[in-house]
Write a structure and sequence with these properties.
Layout (H helix, E strand, L loop, with lengths): L1 H21 L10 H19 L7 H13 L4 H13 L1 H29 L77
Protein name: DUF4296 domain-containing protein
Pfam families: DUF4296
InterPro entries: DUF4296 (IPR025381)
């Protein structure tokens, strides 16, 4: 019985190098997955910025790329050789690019949110039975004079707006200096809707 288990242990010990040899081993000079993920994230953002440069500033493209390599403490040669290794091991490269893609999508959502805030337009209305689609300021002071007697706005549609939805327009107002009544400055409220 003892001899039987001895052969089993011997077989396991002999199989370990074979099993270990099947694993993908990354050479030391190749960037790790986490390093490659961070570098590729910055690299692709930098390449996109470089594509939007005017023709007379094309020289900045390489400066931006060099900055990315400097930021990550590597060189273009190490990056290129790492890319060669990763392209030979596509399963690892797919995993790295999956993480890079997730980071880029998160960044895009943040940018979209900031643009919507800047333009005072909702990025996308919240889904639900009742939503507040108003993205403009809440209080306006209007006068009867031509330069300050109206509010113009655009309410963009989005995927949450469906056929037969209804929009409710609620206004609270207060008139100041009501003792002075002139037909040229009298308050009139109207709404024009353009589809």
């Amino acid at each position: 019985m003892k001899n039987k288990y001895g052969w089993l242990w011997c077989a396991l010990i002999l199989m370990m190098p074979i099993i270990d040899g099947c694993k993908v081993k990354r050479p030391k000079e190749v960037l790790s997955e986490s390093q490659m993920e961070k570098l590729l994230y910055d690299y692709h953002i930098t390449k996109a910025i470089g594509e939007d440069l005017p023709y007379n500033e094309n020289y900045k493209k390489q400066l931006y790329i060099n900055y990315v390599f400097q930021k990550h403490g590597t060189t273009e040669e190490v990056f290129d050789s790492s890319m060669v290794w990763y392209t030979r091991h596509t399963d690892v490269l797919v995993k790295v690019y999956g993480k890079v893609n997730k980071l880029l999508k998160n960044q895009q959502q943040d940018v979209d949110r900031l643009i919507a805030l800047h333009d005072r337009k909702p990025q996308k209305s919240a889904s639900g039975d009742s939503i507040d689609a108003w993205a403009e300021q809440r209080v306006y002071v209007l006068t009867g004079y031509p330069l300050n007697n109206k509010i113009t706005f655009s309410l963009p549609s989005d995927e949450n707006f469906k056929k037969r939805d209804s929009l409710s327009w609620e206004v609270r107002y207060r008139f100041f200096n009501s003792e002075f009544v002139d037909s040229t400055v009298i308050a009139v409220m109207s709404m024009q809707i353009v589809y």
